[in-house]
What does this fold into?
Amino acid sequence: MPLINLMFFSYIKFIFIEFMNELIENSHLLSFPLFCVFVYFFILFFQSSVDKILNWNSELEWIKSHFGKSIFKSNILLLFFTLTLLELATAILCLLSIFNFFIKIYDPLPFFALFFNSCTLICLFLGQRVAKDYQGAVSISVYFIINLIGFFLLSI
It folds into this structure.
């Protein structure tokens, strides 16, 4: 019996090593996690920008109350409009990057999408810190880490 167990585990080890070698040699298998990063950020920024557009007045009132005592209080409308456009542009770039996995549109497109993700998240992070919403800033930091993982996956 022990010989059969040894052979079985040797076979499992062999299969695992072969699988890992194939994973390393075929980098297209590593593109699925990157694909998931783009889907994740598309959902995040598309929903956020569309919500801002459809509920403009209520969102603007919340932003005014959130930043009413900050250095941004005199430019809230301009910053809100800019952030909405930035989120929408980021969502579109993420969507195009998703399509880029199937139909090559433009090779550097995924990099630009991740770059815009970074810019948008840094703007959101700055706003949360200025508004002294530290819990909101922490949640944006988690998104930023996912974005950095996307950059790492893109570089492989």
In short: DSSP finds six helices and no strands in the chain. Helices lie at 2-25, 31-54, 56-67, 76-100, 109-130, 134-155.
